[in-house]
Structure formats: C-alpha cells, structure tokens
Amino acid sequence: MLKGHQSWIFENKPVIRSTATVVGPFEGRGPLANDFDIIHGDSMLEEESWEKAEKVLIEEAAKLAIENAGLTKEQVHFYIGGDLMNQIISSSFAARTLTIPFIGVFGACSSSMESLALAANLVNSGSAKFVLAGTCSHNSSAEKQFRYPSEYGSQKPPTAQYTVTGAGAAIVSTEGDGPVVTSATIGRVIDMGIKDPFNMGAAMAPAAVDTIQAHFRDLEIEPGYYDLIVTGDLSKIGYEIACKLFKKHNFPIGQTEYSDCGMMIYDYETQMVQSGASGCGCSAVVTYGHLLKRMRKGELKRILVVATGALLSPISFQQGESIPCIAHAVSIEAGRSL
Questions:
Q1: How many domains does the chain have?
Q2: What's the superkingdom here (predicted)?
Q3: Which of 181, 219, 253, 271 has a 20 to 30 A CA-CA distance from 127?
Q4: Helix axis angle, 50-68 to 89-98, nearest 10°
Q5: What angle do CA 330, 334, 335 make, to 5 degrees?
C-alpha cells in the first residue's frame, strides 16, 4: 500500500525467512567476521578473473539462502539482484546458473535494499510466495572498472573507500519464522555536483538524508521509533556530512542510534580502508549477517536500513559528468518467533 509520496506499507508483513552471507579474506579479518556464513581464504576464489570470482560470491550466497530456507531453487518464484559491473553481469550470470526467473536491478550500492524492497512488495501483493533478493561486489573488479586496477598501486586520498568483497542474499516469503519487512521508502536521485570518484561518501550523503527524512514524513513517525538507523556505505566522510545535514534541517536523528555499514565492517586501526567500506556487498553482508543476527538475539527490535548508491559509470566520469546518487530505505522489525 502506498503511504505518503514515496513509501510502501507492507500490511501482510513479508518474512525474511532466511539469509546468507559470503565474504572475502579481508572482510574475514574485520570485527564482524563471526557474523558471516562463509569466509573465503582467497579473493580469487580459484577463478580466472576478479569478475568470475564475484559471480561465485553471489551464486554461493543465493544457494545457501535457499538451502537455509528449506527450499529448492525450483520453489523460488523470482530472483531480484544487481551489482556494480557493466550490465550487472555478476547477477545476470548467476541467474543463468540458478535458472530462477530474474529481475535485474541497478541502484549501485543501494541495490541491496532496492532488491529487498521489491521482493517484499511482490510477496506482500500476492504476486509471489518466495523471492530471492541478493547483491554482491568485489574489491578488485570494482577498482578495475571505476578507478585504477589494484595492480597499478595508485595511492588513494583519505576520502576514498574500500569496496567490500562479499555477497548477501535473503529469501522473502509469505510464511516462516524471522524478521518481517514492514515498509520501504524509494529514494529520489540527488546530485550535488560532486565529480570525484574518490569521494563517494560526500556525494551520497544528501541522498541518504533526503530518503530518511521522506521515510519519517511519509509514515508520520519519529526517529525514536527505531532502535537503529543505519546507512549503507557513507563511511566516515559521508556519515559526518549526513550528521551535519540532519542538524541543519533540524531533523531529530539523535532520538535513536545512527550508524553506517561502511564504518562497521572493517577495523580502522588495523585495516587500511581510508574513509571506510563501500560496494553492493557492504550493506548486504552487514544487514543480512550482523544486524539480523543482533535482531535474532533480541538486541534490536526495529531497524531502518538505508542503502546508498552512486549512479556513475566509467563513461559518465570520462565525459566530466557529476555523480547522481540515490538511497532506498527498508524497515525491518522483529517478527514471528523473535
């Protein structure tokens, strides 16, 4: 059901029946390592290229999520997914392997919550019973496409971020035990004129703030409704800008805990990640791994996950275009048997 201008209320409360997270070795050395299902010891995953390794990440996460739900892939009605590669090849090629009817989405790093919101909408409306939502990224494939290949050894400024090597997937269903998706707010494209691909956090922060404010305006609730509001991958620079924007707009973000997935997955003291983490896999593995694990433990009852994305491409950058950004918010609450 439409609520306000850009939000959906899911009155049937679709269930996140199962999740799965797969990460690389660098993520396995971070503070959230115990919350991931599979940690690979080799970022190549015994494949011939970074891109092929990325495809394996989402294939493994998808298959494990289906298995954890007690389903077979033949029972899953739709797979909604996306990634950062040209023509979302990681997700598309994984869909080739899975042979599940596929809906490809591209919201850059916001794709994790974009896919979850769409999956919940399909289930809530009765258009599907089981939907797989999943996203992935790989540090080396993203660096090669958007900045400089890792082998080039270029120095990065403090504003730069480290793309997560990982994939997260969830099965959204009309039935089962688990957290429920109660609402979603679809973001607008916001472009503040930033052109620097090494300053994604600053580019995305205004979009995150815009979507968060729209969510509370549409639903007519206060930030204190949630135990935690978490953005996707603004990291330190973008997080600080978002906090300043909330203050400027007199938005009472201080009523609840506010954090960012890009600041949670790595250890700033021991891992050189500049401003923090980014990538489609960032908010996916932190949400489907760490945050939902905390929810299952009873530490969190209501969370709002606001995945953020920079909608640039190598072509747009080469043509001197600024970076349009977007953010999608999904409300997840403790549900059945939690």
A1: 2
A2: Bacteria
A3: 219
A4: 50
A5: 105
